[in-house]
Design brief:
The structure is a single chain. This protein has one helix and no strands. With about 140 residues, it is mostly helical. It is about 95% helix and about 0% strand.
Length: about 140
């Protein structure tokens, strides 16, 4: 058994391998490598464009958030002012209603006081007369 290969057999086997490798490189591998390189370039461009769009969106979002913050502050000030005006108006209405009700209560108290005085006078007159009438009936004579 010989360890050294036969040079003619090595050349005969190397030629079809070299031809096949060259053919595969030209027909299959080079177009596939070009396609993969083109795909990588398209992906890189898409990623760069997406990053650019994300930066623009972040900028617009920050701008909109700033405008919203200003609008919220303006709305808060408007609400506070409206609430203060409403509370002042409420206080004025309540004060007016209390004054009117105090007048009505005072008038009713005055009417009750005069009615009480009239009723008291009438009752005092009737008490004397009732007392004489009861004495006349009990004693059977005029008192």
């Amino acid at each position: 058994m010989e360890i050294v290969p036969d040079p003619v057999a090595a050349v005969v086997l190397t030629l079809p391998f070299a031809f096949t490798a060259t053919f595969l490189w030209l027909v299959l591998f080079r177009p596939m490598v070009a396609y993969l390189e083109e795909r990588r370039a398209v992906s890189a461009n898409a990623l760069a464009e997406a990053a650019h769009l994300n930066e623009g969106a972040a900028r617009r979002t920050a701008e909109i958030e700033q405008r919203l913050s200003g609008a919220r502050e303006t709305a808060g000030v408007a609400r506070r002012d409206a609430r203060a005006r409403a509370q002042k108006r409420e206080a004025a209405i309540l004060a007016e209603a209390r004054a009117e009700s105090d007048k009505k209560v005072a008038a009713a108290l005055a009417a009750l006081t005069t009615d009480r005085a009239v009723a008291s006078a009438v009752l005092k007159g009737q008490a004397g007369e009732l007392g004489r009438e009861m004495s006349r009936q009990i004693l059977g004579r005029e008192v």
